[in-house]
Amino acid sequence: MTFALSSAAAGALASIPSPSISYIDLGPLRIHFYALCIIAGIIVAVFLTNARLTRRGAEKWVVIDICLLAVPLAIVFARIYHVVTHLGFYFGPGSNPWNPLQPGSVWAIWEGGIAIYGALIGGAIGAYLGCRWTGIRFWTFADALAPGLIIAQAMGRFGNWFNQELFGQPTDLPWGLEIDRPNPAIPVGLPSDTLFQPTFLYEVIWNLLGAAVILWAGKRFTLQWGKQFALYLVWYSAGRIVWESIRIDPSDIILGLRTNVWAAIFGVVLGLVIFVVQSRRHLGLEPSPYMPGRESKAPGAVESTDPTDFVDVSEPPATNDTVGTSATSSLATK
């Protein structure tokens, strides 16, 4: 990859400054802004998901029970995914990856290094288990989560800004990002006043637009059965393909592409598959946000009677009404 950028041209441009600090110390406690951004995003996602689930007829704050499993697993898998796809960072010559007090260890999550796609894998496992526990349909929860999740990801990207990491190629655009030296991600030989593509900002804008599209499309077309989550996967992953392609931080390469580009391509394909399969499998609306036989958890919830719905092996779905009646009942409870 060749970078051609005049130092004088870069210095003459307006630019986006990077924060001079990435943490604050409160006595013996060090608080990283990276962590605060992630926590703030989780809080926003929980509140928005709760509001959307409640409107669908679920018990208020049932989302907390699901998140008790989903959030920890998301964080653990996010870190594992990052370490596995950046093995050279942690297991190279002179490294001490298992010492929790050593900078650059696999445990030093406060230094950054959690991967969205790992979080999606762990979060999906936790959400599935949480939904089985609470009786909420997995796809209903996924749809309710979709806009809050992509907003949370937008908020989390500000953590990369504070950490001065995951920026893009050198640029002479007026919104180039200033990065302090030294920084191990900066290619050798670039002038000290070189500016970089603010990929964190691109993703923030893209994700917020995605949240608006998901909210609009979900209401306009009454998308259910996981189709809003499928739209999230396609939208987020399509943007991620672009941002990953211009980032210059070290990454493992497979067949000429960064590992996260392959993950994003898979995300687009998976989202399309979910949308098509669920559209063909479920022609009507969701009868209830609860699995068959679990509706009593929420007062006034309508019992599921859709024969094409998820079948709980311990609680066979009722069959005394028609699919049309289920769709009508769904409209009455929204």
From TrEMBL:
It is an enzyme of class 2 (transferase). Coiled coil: none annotated. Its EC number is 2.5.1.145. Residues 288-334 are annotated as: Disordered. Keywords: Cell membrane, Membrane, Transferase, Transmembrane, Transmembrane helix. It is found in: Cell membrane. The chain crosses the membrane at residues 32-49, 61-84, 104-129, 136-156, 200-217, 260-277. One of its GO terms (molecular function) is phosphatidylglycerol-prolipoprotein diacylglyceryl transferase activity. A 1,2-diacyl-sn-glycero-3-phospho-(1'-sn-glycerol) binds at residue 157. Pfam families: LGT. It comes from the Bacteria. Belongs to the Lgt family. Catalyzes the transfer of the diacylglyceryl group from phosphatidylglycerol to the sulfhydryl group of the N-terminal cysteine of a prolipoprotein, the first step in the formation of mature lipoproteins. PANTHER family: PHOSPHATIDYLGLYCEROL--PROLIPOPROTEIN DIACYLGLYCERYL TRANSFERASE, PROLIPOPROTEIN DIACYLGLYCERYL TRANSFERASE. This is Phosphatidylglycerol--prolipoprotein diacylglyceryl transferase. It comes from Microbacterium mcarthurae. The gene is lgt.
